[in-house]
Amino acid sequence: MDGGVNGSGLPVNNKQRAMLPNKSRGDFTRNSRKDSEGLSESPDLEFEYADTDKWAAELSELYSYTEGPEFALNRKCFEEEFRTHVSEKKWTELDGAEHRAHAMRLLDGLEVTAREKRLKVARAILYMAQGTFAECDSEAEVQHWMRYNIFLLLDVGTFSALVDLLNMEIDNTAACSSAVRKPAISLADSTDLRVLLNIMYLMVETIQQDDPADRPEWKIIRETFRTELGSPLFNNEPVSVMLFGMVTKFCSGHAPHFPMKKVLLLLWKSILFTLGGFEQLQTIKVHKREELGLPPLPEDSIRVIRSMRAASPPASASDLIEQQQKRARREHKALIKQDNLDQFNEKDPYKADDSREDEDDNDDSDNSIEPETFPLERDEVMPPPIPHPPSERVSFPKGLPWAPKVREKDIENFLESSRSKFIGYTLGSDTDTVVGLPRPIHESIKTLKQHKYISIAEMQIAKEEDFQKTPLSGGEEEVEMCATELLYQGILPSLPQYMIALLKILLAAAPTSKAKTDSINILADVLPEEMPTTVLQSMKLGVDVNRHKEIIVKAISAILLLLLKHFKLNHIYQFEYMAQHLVFANCIPLILKFFNQNIMSYITAKNSISVLDFPYCVVHELPELTAESLEAGDNNQFCWRNLFSCINLLRILNKLTKWKHSRTMMLVVFKSAPILKRALKVKQAMMQLYVLKLLKVQTKYLGRQWRKSNMKTMSAIYQKVRHRLNDDWAYGNDLDARPWDFQAEECALRANIERFNSRRYDKSHSNPDFLPVDNCLQSVLGQRVDLPEDFQMNYDLWLEREVFSKPISWEELLQ
Predict the structure, then answer these.
(1) From CA 801, how far away is CA 443, in angstroms rounded?
(2) What is the distance between the alpha carbons of residues 9 and 226, in angstroms, rounded to a whole number?
(3) Where is the composition biased (Basic and acidic residues) (predicted)?
(4) Between these two residues, 33 and 796, which has the higher pLDDT value?
(5) Which of 40, 37, 36, 642 is nearest to 386 (CA)?
(6) Averaging pLDDT over each range in 179-188, 190-199, 357-366, which range is the top one?
(7) Binning pLDDT at 50, 70 and 90, where does residue 515 land?
(8) Do residues 334 and 376 lie in contact, with contact meaning Cβ atoms separated by under 8 Å?
């Protein structure tokens, strides 16, 4: 898993690298080389993690560049329809009543039976949702009219009509069977679906944007829509469940023409809008802790992470060899003036693509190179701060960013080992009796209890155990029917298939996937009917395909992370059910495979053509595209969506492995340490934090030699990751360093999950022993019993055989 895939160079990565101008490629290598030598001149990536990118970017990612000509087609369909009713004025010149009347007319047009006419009306509605851009002069104006038109469309009931049409298209067996038979699927096969999904996405994406300038009635419409979207109003299931159904149908091969990127984007935005983003998650968490009577959170994790600075990446093997050769000069160099150091480094030969970087820790290759850290290296882990506006930063006292935490189990283990050591007896789970223990142990227990943290999950597990132990006296559980609960109930019957389908698509979209592993074709909604004939068209399509894959990775990573986080808050066993099926579907090696590439190249990939992005392309005259302009790309320091995807995937990996010994050992077995260590080259604090967390959990299993040669990484873990008191993460002498039985651990967890699911959701198989018994003779005899038809026909025979022909001893019966 840690092999030199990167060294040999994947075709996709090389393309991405080719998209970078030589100058910038040299700069990146140059900066990383300087970092490893302690100068930290590579700037932090000014990346602000959020639920989504800027609104304009999210709108532009809905369309592939191949769909460009359809903007004009939508406009034509709208204007033909509009001119039959309004001859003089423009759309932007009409009043509210006229706008509403026309929207109602279009909505009626969606109900015609002729497919061609219906598609034309749908295109006209799409043009409205795109902001009637032909009458606008700027992007801001397009966005203003988009917002106005979409609220109008929602108010007249367009969304439910679209859901019905989408259901009809999903069940369109003729389209499915024709697509299955086709050797090559293109944009033309999914036209109807794409138009419907485009309108639905624009509606969800626009309405979820909270604008303080919105009218009061819009705010009411918005909240009503949020509730409806998350409840089983449309087709007796939440919209998200219907979209999950599309994903599995696509992956099963029954509907290869489904435009998967659009389905996944709509699914992500529907989940985000109905369940809430990361800020809302934090609010729900605080509220739940209050309800359960737990102490407040020690800090706001979102603000802490935003205020962190990136550490310099650890040195690569080639740099360490150079350092060893220059060890004699090294101590003297720490005293030289900074400008002299800069001159010294300028003489270094920089290479554009050093394959040796990828071998930076073949476990024992750089063993004895760095037995101690020098003053210069100590400074390197925390580079000089970059000035930020005061509002963005949280001022901490000097020290560690996170308050330490201790679990109840840790206190119990500490007391048990202390008692057996000093007194020779144990007391089980008693954490209060400290008789006979020395005073330093008393102090330790006091400190541990000060930092004790009880999670919502622990409370939910304890409550569930009570329900299982005492099903009768426990009473009926009150389940709050929030959007998360409704979604879980909707996806519960097919959740394993949904997880497998999402991971299949993620594998096909990952840049490290070779052609042979692409068992499914995810390019159905990007490939044109006629393949390119010129070099320029081929380059444009190449950019489009890479961008398409990146957007799919972004959507899937966000969907999985949001679901895991919301399910964990709603009930820990809902989270565990989803997480376990992800693990069974090989999610852990898949994410590691994703990171086993030149991650810096992925994050700085320039797979976008800004002049073709919506809404820029519909407002401005398009310049002539040339091969040079396509190769140059944009001037951004990094690609927002790729960095966002990487952070999400790391967070998912953390969620799957946290407190799971057998899954942590999977990280060790799949040799994730060198892959993760390479990801530290990205100078972004949040990404580094989640990489360091993953390295921390496996450090004790990597051996003394690895720890010795990776002291810089160890320092970064110490400085950035939360401390668990009495957690021996940096050493091997821990209770958890035991043989691991993956099957036993997962089976025990699975049994708990199945008990929870059957108790709460499977009412048909409830235990007959626990059903209430009716002891009243009159009510039992008064119950209506439906007798089968054949019994009623042969009633006389039954009476004769069972009643009249049998002797009855009335004396015995009456006694």
Answers:
(1) 84
(2) 46
(3) 24-37, 333-354
(4) 796
(5) 40
(6) 190-199
(7) low
(8) yes
* Nearest 10 degrees: Cα torsion 177, 179, 182, 185: -170
Q: Domain ends where: 291, 313, 346? A: 291
- Write out the two tokens for 452: 């004790």
* 656 and 557 belong to one structural domain: yes
**Contacts made by residues 4-12, CB under 8 angstroms, sequence distance 24+:** 4/355, 4/358, 4/359, 5/512, 5/596, 5/597, 6/355, 6/358, 6/596, 6/597, 6/598, 6/678, 7/355, 7/358, 7/359, 10/511, 10/512, 10/514, 10/597, 12/511, 12/512, 12/546
Element (H, E) at 675: helix 672-679
Model pLDDT, residue 681: 93
Q: What is the pLDDT of residue 787?
A: 82
What's the pLDDT tens digit per position in 463-473? Answer: 999 999 888 77
Residue 653 and residue 664: Cα distance in Å, rounded? 10
Ramachandran region, residue 331 (left: φ > 0; alpha: ψ -120 to 50; beta: rest):
alpha
In the predicted structure, residue 389 carries a pLDDT above the cut 50: no
Same-domain check for residues 134 and 61? yes
The DSSP line for 47-60 is: ----SSS-HHHHHH
Give yes or no for a contact between 62 and 266, defined as CB atoms under 8 angstroms apart. Answer: no
Same domain, 546 and 693: yes
- The pLDDT-based confidence of 387 (bands split at 50, 70, 90) is very low
One-letter amino acid at 407 equals R
For residue 430, the enclosing domain spans 408-452
Token pair in block for residue 157:
């009931």
Same domain, 598 and 699: yes
Q: What is the pLDDT of residues 398-454, one digit of tens each?
A: 678 999 999 999 999 899 889 888 888 788 778 888 888 999 999 999 999 999 999
Query: Which residue has tokens 């992007």?
Result: 139
Range list of H helices, 316-374: 317-325, 327-333, 338-346
d(CA 489, CA 244): 13
Highest mean pLDDT pick, 18-27, 317-326, 330-339: 317-326
Residue 281: name the closest of 58, 575, 492 by CA. Answer: 575
Are 639 and 603 within 8 A, CB to CB? yes
Cα distances (angstroms) measured from residue 306 to each of 46, 48, 401, 684: 11, 8, 11, 10
With 50 as the cut, is the pLDDT of residue 144 above it? yes
In a domain, 248, yes or no: yes
Q: Which residue blocks in 47-190 are alpha helix, DSSP H?
A: 55-60, 70-83, 96-109, 115-129, 139-155, 158-170, 173-181
Average pLDDT of the chain is: 83
pLDDT band, very low/low/confident/very high, at 337 (cuts 50, 70, 90): very low
Q: Hey, what are 724's tokens? A: 């668990």
Task: Determine what percent of the chain is predicted with pLDDT higher than 70.
Answer: 81
Domain boundary among 743, 758, 773: 758
Beta bridge partners of 452: 406
541 and 640, same structural domain? yes
| 345 pLDDT more than 70 | no
